[in-house]
Write a structure and sequence with these properties.
Number of helices: 7
CATH class: Mainly Alpha
Number of strands: 0
CATH topology: Globin-like
Radius of gyration: 14 Å
Order of helices and strands: HHHHHHH
Structural class: mainly alpha
Shape: globular
CATH architecture: Orthogonal Bundle
Distance between the termini: 51 Å
Largest sheet: none
Bound molecules: protoporphyrin IX containing FE
Length: about 130
């Protein structure tokens, strides 16, 4: 049988757009996270995270065509991310992931990655 990527198995681009759209709707009203975003319009940030996650999970490589190598730790250096910011990010993402209606095995796999990634991007502990 043909190998199906995680990206395809969970519904492709539409699923990633739905999750990240829901995530940024939460960010927009989050007192911890909203002040970190330099741009008034969250749309471009939403697009970057959507394309990154699509690429990570085996979808098209549009993110790297537009942005180059992800270098996520470097790109997050300007923003102080301690436990409070990490927890806020994961709280918004949890709502978005739970809302997407994925099968439990896929949801768990996605969540495990997002928790690991959020922990790995912490760069401030004060
Ligand atoms: C960009 C915050 C975790 C992926 C950003 C930006 C902020 C931010 C303020 C700049 C917005 C923009 O212009 O794109 C945070 C905080 C996190 C967090 C507070 C808490 C731990 C993550 C995680 C991932 C991620 C876990 C991936 C799984 C990205 C990507 C970009 C980005 C792909 C755009 C990079 C670029 O191409 O410039 N993040 N982030 N972030 N973040 Fe995060």
């Amino acid at each position: 049988p043909e190998q199906v990527s995680f990206f395809e198995a969970v519904g492709g681009e539409e699923t990633f757009r739905r999750i990240v759209g829901r995530f940024y709707a939460e960010v927009a009203t989050d007192d911890v996270l909203r002040p970190l975003y330099p741009e008034e319009d969250l749309g471009p940030a939403e697009e970057r995270l959507t394309l990154f996650l699509m690429q990570y999970w085996g979808g098209p490589h549009t993110y790297s065509e537009q942005r180059g190598h992800p270098r996520l730790r470097m790109r997050h250096q300007p923003f102080p991310i301690g436990p409070i910011e990490r927890d806020a990010w994961l709280r918004c993402m949890r709502i978005a992931v739970d809302d997407a209606g994925l099968d439990k095995a896929y949801r768990d796999q996605l969540w495990q990655y997002l928790e690991m990634a959020a922990n790995s991007l912490m760069n401030a502990w004060a």
